[in-house]
Amino acid sequence: MNLSAGGIALILLGLVSGTRSESIVSGPKPGTPLTPVMVYDGLGAFAGREFDAAREIGGNPGALLFVHSMTRNTYHVIRGLDQLAGRNALMGFKSFTVYLSEDRTSAENQIRLRNGLATGGYKFSVTGKFGALKLENPIMLSLDGVDGPGNYALNRRAVLTLVTMRDGKVHGTHTFTDTGEYDLPLLEKLVSEVVGPIPQELPEQRKLREARLPKEKDRLRKLAVQFQAFWGREFRRGHPMLPAVEEITGPLPAPDAALAEVVEGRLPEDAIELKAMALRQAEELFHLQTRLNAAKAGQLRYTTMKTVQIRQRMQSGRMTPNPAKNTSGRNDQAKRTSNRSAPEVKTAKQAGKPPADPQLNQFMRAFIRQTNTPAVNLEILREIRKRSRESAELKEESIAMFQFLLAGDRYGNADARRLASEFLAGQTESKAQ
Known about the structure:
Elements: H1 5-21, E1 38-41, E2 49-52, H2 53-57, E3 62-67, H3 75-87, E4 94-99, H4 104-115, E5 140-142, E6 160-166, E7 169-176, H5 184-195, H6 202-212, H7 217-231, H8 242-249, H9 255-266, H10 271-296, H11 304-316, H12 328-350, H13 358-367, H14 374-388, H15 392-407, H16 414-432
Parallel strand pairs: 3-4, 4-5
Antiparallel strand pairs: 1-2, 1-5, 3-6, 6-7
Helix pairs in contact: 3-5, 7-8, 7-9, 10-11, 13-14, 14-15, 14-16, 15-16
């Protein structure tokens, strides 16, 4: 079959136009009344609860971002929407990012990795940012499977589906099939359409406050303090809505003081938990400083994976000071301290010990929080069981970990200690059989 150059060009043009002509449509039509969007929150403001995200937004301006595919390219849009929600919080804007999956267990694991553990993980746990994406509002899990809520006509071939809303109805939808940082200007435009302009006069600000913001003084103040902590610096003279808010709450703190208030509110009351949190933050600061030093030195091969390896070495106790850099006096002091603590180490070994495996160590820290609900404890225990089955060594570490937890009376709440006892009893029975 002989084809001329012109014929080949026409065939190629037809193939290209054919692929471009197919567009993916996903999401409900504008004007559609909102129907329930049932989700599960693992560790955010609704931790351990199932709730209706659409009802939570209500008549306020808001957005639901349905995630059909969790990839690195989607992170720009996920984080971008979360940041826009923070910046527009005093305008009453609310948003939820909802992950769709047919396998709930697998989906919960994926979300947990991106949100961080119940302790906040290593990333920004003190300030209330979740996971490596530093989200104020962590990713939720859809309870309606991979297709999402039926009335929303979501297309599983889309990468992301954004549904914006206002006055209890769908304002618009946008389907993302190839996402990235270049989508952020469009995202900001879509959010601005439902938020509307910021009122400049006090009477209009009062009307907006009454229509969109919490009526309760404490809830309103908490919202405003969080806004000041994370976004207050972006407004040199303060957000225009602050005067109307302060009529109810009284004077609000400046950004630095607001951040300190947010941090103080998240600090655990238990001394052991507080110490553990301080250690986690010290490790994270070390991680950030190491990356900064590498960047300044032009070491482009330095990667996040390397910092993870450094952190794991720190957790397992293999990172020790270089003896050559220590003075003899310091070495002598270390020896004396080591000799004095020898009996205590022996006792700890007899009663189990913390795991050397970084993942198990992280699970243990999450498991011993006094504020955990039974659902959170059970969720973490499932992960520990799953990890312990991967090898005989990890199984032994899991047993020693729970022995260590039960050796004293200061680790974990009553429910966690009950689960730990049941775990150990199960291991004893299996050995006997």
